[in-house]
Amino acid sequence: MRVHGQSDQRKALRALLDALPTHGGQLLLAGEPGLGRTTLLQWAARSFRAGPVLHLRPDARTRGSVGHLLDTLRTAAAAAPVLVCADDAHLWDAPARTALGRAARRLHSADRVGLLLSVASDRAVAPEFAPLPVVLLDPLSPPRAAALLDDLTDGAAAPAVREQLLAEAEGNPALLVALVRRLSPAELRGHRPLPRPLADATALAEAAGGAPNGQSAHARDLLLTVAAAGEAADGADVDAGLVHDALRRLRPAPEPDPRAEPLPGQLVLAGDRIRFRSPLVRRTVHATADPERRRTVHRALADVRESGGDRLTGLLHHSWSLGGPEPASTSADRHAAVTADRLAAVAADGAVPASHRLRATAYARAAELTADGARRAERYTAAAEQALLAGCPERARPLLAAARDRALPAAVRGRAELVRGVAELRDGPVGDAHQSLLLAASLLAVDAPADAAAAALAAADAVWAAGDLPACLATLAPDPPPRAGNPAHGSDGPAGTSAPASHPAAVVRDHRIGMRALLEGRLDRAGAPLRQVVERGRTEVRPEALLRSAAAALLLGDVAAARSGGARALAAARQLGSEALVPQALEYLAYAELRAGRHPQARTHAEEGLRTALRAGQRNTAAHHRAVLALAASIEEEPDVVARHVTAALDTALRHGLAQAATLAQWAAARADLGRGRPFDAADRLGLLVLPGPGRGHFAVWRLAVPCFVEAAVLAGRHEDARAVLTEFAGWAAFGADPQAAAQLARCHALLAPAEQADDLYRRALDRHAEAGGDFERARTALLYGKWLRRRRRPREARGRLGAALAGFERCGAGVWAAQARDELRALGAAPPGTGTAAPTLLGRLTPQQLRIARHVAEGATNREVALALGVSTRTVDYHLRKVFAALGVRSRLELARVVGQAEQAQETQEALGARAARRVEQHEKTGAQH
């Protein structure tokens, strides 16, 4: 069987199946209808090969005594382990459920019986099932749902149809199957319009296993009222007081308060909030209700909301109490049109408190009630834009598809294309986003020049992410002069008239001018407009403008302004509920912290940014955050973390054309190699990024990796390659956009300089670091200087520099580099602080220099590679290696690798035991103190 998604759940099932030959166990599969409980049970049954599979159904054995049921199961398992499956156990009658639950609790591991039950998620807490270990099923992720859809349709669904099917299914596989089954081949291929609503009562009831109903009229009204209120709350929980007030309007006679009466099993009450346990059941209750009763419930909710001053939600419920647009001559149609206009106007009113999700729902409903094609498309586009701001691209794309019509005015089509391009920029191939945004700029040029300029700048963002310098320059080219009678473009063309300094168009204009000058190498012309963008950000409150301010500050190398702008953009986005802008603000903050050398802070921002980006469906933004996390981890002792983030970042970057994220991830992998004493690997990786040629890294990133490459290349003996990139790096350092570049340039020159010049260059680099700040880069320079001093037999000076390097690395959490500094101090005969006597007894026979050589050889390095890494001659390595072989009693490099590996593993075990003992002592002391 092919099962889409649920990989964690299958691992849990596989663990149960694999253990059955030796001992039994139980698992409870719980999930809402349609998520595949039955499919997983069937998968487990077909995967089990060690013995028979019994499918248990309620009959005399399960309704009878627990002892009889246990005897039956144990007898079946006497000859071989047995898997017992019970699907939908929550539907059994009470005696059978009780007997099954007791039998499950009384089975012993020696019985070799695997009991696998499935129940609806709301019944997993029932007394008979609560003691069992639970595996919860999740909705399918967007990629898994897309794979299922492709399987169901053989990939025949048109792109717009595909997006709408995935959005309506909300990750529920049974609903996706029901929706596909509903469509004809012509509808599936986009040749005919889709039915409205796409997820109708029949499809929803099929996926949910029927339409749930309460046992009384009050219970049915309660279910429908909660379901209807949830339509405006995007399916989330709703105020129980609101539900009670609406029920009183439905039934004037006194009715029980839902907060005081037992609730139907489909609902759960938490405090003063009430919700459905299953989103699918909520949608099914709403869709399958009697239409007239449903409209009555919405009218009651509208009255309650409007009386409480909630204009937007009240209007929305009022609109749902109406039918769709009818022939223009009817009063119902005029009423619907008036309601649609009012709803759209209130949704557009920024003074009305409402979330982006609610505004998206209001605009979409207004569009449904609008007969005029152009106005309907405008409202669908506005709904899509609000859905994007809410971090729901899966909702935005179907709305944009509904707005698509070639007969619409250019301005309407341009606005839709702008929103589509922004969605693709965050979650799609950036080449596609570039073309969509260019088309938007062209369509908006006459009627909405400010929006056209914003679209053009967003198009430049797309090719910037792609690393296409010629396309970026072309996109940032000055606009032609505005036509007579049209609003000014605010361009930098000779005939353009500038927008006021406070106007958003001025920010766009200045940012574009500064970016283009910077990319053309006209550094003298780039500073002024970019500084204008930064300065305006100091008084801005709009998150979009603050993001531009932070981006301009990063281009200028003003790290403090970038951090301030990013933090203010983050606060503004959170305050406005702009879920789509939060990951971007965190991205700028993470980059600013990296540029400042504050890796722990960068990691913190990137971790939150990754979570919010994935939640908002922004895979491109997530790739950038993963690249930052890889860079942060590359200085720590976490090679597995680096590899994981690099792999994940490159997976998206390569598929979506994200050259910037790819370059950062590859730099992170190389820096991890360099930190772990593998300069040859680091030089090979970095050479592809920084040396001239078609495979060079992103035009705005590769210079940042030059200092790492120079260090790796010198250690690997590639001095000419190192010198080849310093001329361009010197120009970059002179511009001043990177506060660390001047000190790094002096360090690079010191690495390549003759002995009589290197001393002064290292000192100059440290002086520049003192001006720029940043523990990590200063510590790296101190480490290299200390190594150089030790090789020149100046131990006292070397010890001071190496001690400062160790302190700097420890302060910024650079564990892997701190280890290098400790090794260098040991080679000088100095015991680094905090190291104690952790060396294993066997390796303790070696001198510090011999230990370093042994570790390099154990990792597979040749004698020449060891010599280059340690800055000694090959003859010195040969001499020490003979001593190592004699001290350890080994005869080959392979045997040496085994001995070193075993000794270091024993050391790690000893340290772990010591740490555990220390924790026990600490806990004992705490306990004693409490007593």
What does this structure look like?
Among the domains are: 7-136, Rossmann fold; 142-208; 322-394, no CATH class; 839-930, Arc Repressor Mutant, subunit A. 65% of the residues lie in helices and 4% in strands. It is built from 45 helices and 8 strands. The strands form 2 sheets. It has a 5-stranded parallel sheet. Helix 5 (94-106) links the parallel strand 3 (82-86) and strand 4. It is flat and about 95 Å long. Mean pLDDT is 84; it is low at 324-329, 481-502, 835-840, 917-922 and 924-931.
Structural descriptors:
931 residues; mainly alpha; Rossmann fold; five-stranded parallel beta sheet; three-stranded antiparallel beta sheet; 45 helices; 8 strands; disordered C terminus
Task: Give me the number of helical elements.
Answer: 45
**Approximately how much helix is present in the residues?**
55-70%
Radius of gyration: 33 Å
Strand order of the largest sheet: 2-3-4-1-5
Overall pLDDT: 84
CATH superfamily of the domain at 7-136: P-loop containing nucleotide triphosphate hydrolases
Structural class: mainly alpha
Give the CATH architecture of the domain at 7-136: 3-Layer(aba) Sandwich
Largest sheet: 5 strands, parallel
How far apart lie the N and C ends? 59 Å
- Uncertain stretches: 324-329, 481-502, 835-840, 917-922, 924-931
Question: Number of DSSP strands?
Answer: 8
Organism: Streptomyces hyderabadensis
Domain HTH luxR-type: 839-904
Protein name: Helix-turn-helix transcriptional regulator
Region (Disordered): 477-505
